[in-house]
Design a protein that fits this description.
Blueprint: H1 2-16, H2 37-51, H3 67-78
Protein name: Acyl carrier protein
Domain Carrier: 3-78
Pfam family, one: PP-binding
Length: 81
């Protein structure tokens, strides 16, 4: 499921937030994707809607996370091992 989850989160970034797909690699820091604070809130909201997991307590450190860390955070919230 991790690959499916990774693809789904990648889809949110590309389709909804218009991030260049080539930039989304596991070790990219989210703040380097030029997501402003509004986009970060939108990302959190879309993840919550799609996966039923609330990651808003992590909003303040979201920009410093890598894409892989974001996937792990969502994975732990949905209980996927």
């Amino acid at each position: 499921m991790t690959d499916d989850l990774s693809l789904a989160i990648r889809g949110i970034l590309v389709d909804d937030l218009e991030v260049d797909a080539d930039q989304i690699v596991p070790d990219v820091q989210l703040d380097s994707l030029e997501l402003d604070s509004l986009a970060a809130v939108e990302l959190i909201t879309l993840i919550q809607e799609q996966f039923g997991v609330d990651i808003s307590p992590e909003e303040s450190r979201l920009g410093k996370m890598t894409f892989a860390e974001l996937v792990q955070l969502v994975q732990s919230g949905v209980g996927v091992a």
